[in-house]
Amino acid sequence: MDLDKEWFFTLAFSGMRPGELVALKKSDLDFNKNTIRISKTLYSEKNNMKEYMPDTTKTNRSRIIDMDESIMKMLKQLVRSNDRHKMKYRTGIEDFHDEDFIFQRSNGYVFRK
């Protein structure tokens, strides 16, 4: 899945760090208020998608960022796409890491650049 556009615009218009971006989950987005809550970052010592640890942000504080409506619409489409894709794995035939990451690989694990 190519997430370059969503990755670029979200980083550019939010000021968040890449580790904070990949840690975003569906519950961190408020589409009614057009905000993103940043409360964590992801750390992977070996840069392995299956071996990651949630960590506090650099400032050890969560923050709410107001976002442009067009970017939130783009993220909403991504969430919907992720949800549709996840339903394919409900049969239990294939392994799917269900953590509701916004930027996720096809297997649900975190998408890192």
UniProtKB/TrEMBL annotation:
The keyword Zinc-finger does not apply. The keyword Repeat does not apply. It comes from Virgibacillus alimentarius. Residues 1-113 form the Tyr recombinase domain. Keywords: DNA recombination. It comes from the Bacteria. This is Integrase. Gene3D superfamilies: Intergrase catalytic core. InterPro entries: DNA_brk_join_enz, Integrase-like_cat_sf, Integrase_catalytic.
